[in-house]
Specification:
There is one protein chain. The protein is of the alpha/beta class. It has a single domain, classed as TIM Barrel, CATH 3.20.20. The chain is about 35% helix and about 20% strand. The strands form 4 sheets. An 8-stranded parallel sheet has the order 3-16-15-10-9-8-7-4. The protein has a 4-stranded antiparallel sheet with strand order 5-6-14-11, with no helix packed on it. The longest helix has 15 residues. It is globular. The structure holds succinic acid.
Length: about 300
Amino acid sequence: MPDLSVTLSGIKLDNPVIPASGTFGYGAEFKDFYDINILGSFSFKGTTKEPRFGNPTPRVAECVSGMINSVGLQNPGIDAVINEELPRIATYFKKPVIANIGGFSVDEFVYCAERLSVSEQVGIIEVNISCPNLHKGGVNFGSDPKAAAEVTAAVRKATNKPIYLKLSPNVESITEIAKACEDAGADGISLINTLLGMRIDIKTRKPVIANKMGGFSGRAIFPVALRMVYEVSKAVKIPIIGMGGVASAENVIEMMMAGASAVQVGAENLRNPYACKEIIEALPRVMAELKIDRLRDIVGVA
Ligand code: SIN
């Protein structure tokens, strides 16, 4: 039997496949397609202190091999996530989840981390310092090593849960940011968030997205994500969750060979709601073809 299990900060996952934040909601819609307990875990929609409607519409644009979003962290706020979503998740998902948090100040990140710390269902807190769709907060914390370290250190003090900082590719040096997070106490790094992109409707001569620009994700960004996972894995000792354009079992294996200990699947869930199920089911066959007995043995072999 091939062994698909991996470990993230002491948490054993049956396999490395994790739907990415913002592409899987709280799992409720996807559980009607398949039993989501086959997943390694899932990262739920980025949660902020206050509820957010998000950015004005239209906020998505289709692209060849991907899409652009400018959702703007639409979410019901930390109170609703703790009082309604997490108890609901517990009825249909029996594994630890990854709680993704966003913020407009260090205090907001700290507040959300503190509140989520008491939930048994939360295995890892994923700190999103890379949202490209906010006029303040978001990537502003993730594009400067000092600011990234400040958020990391503050969240580190606020919780005993493992914290993974989610990083942006839209920076001068992602390795410098990753190292700053590691030095400030991060348990792991998630990368990459979306690449800043834009479309123009040539008939209206206006940007397609109301906010003009947004985050580009999907299959097209896989080689960029892979390169960044590779570079960061050489620069830090903490585990990496790799993501960006992952759409197949082969992509999962490639990400792990680049240095990822687990892998998130994002935009592909929006194209095919069965994507993660199909990837998990295909992994044993692809592992057999490649003579891989234990998936965790290939982390960083490239
Ligand atoms: C969004 O809600 O704008 C997307 C989240 C992100 O890219 O971090």
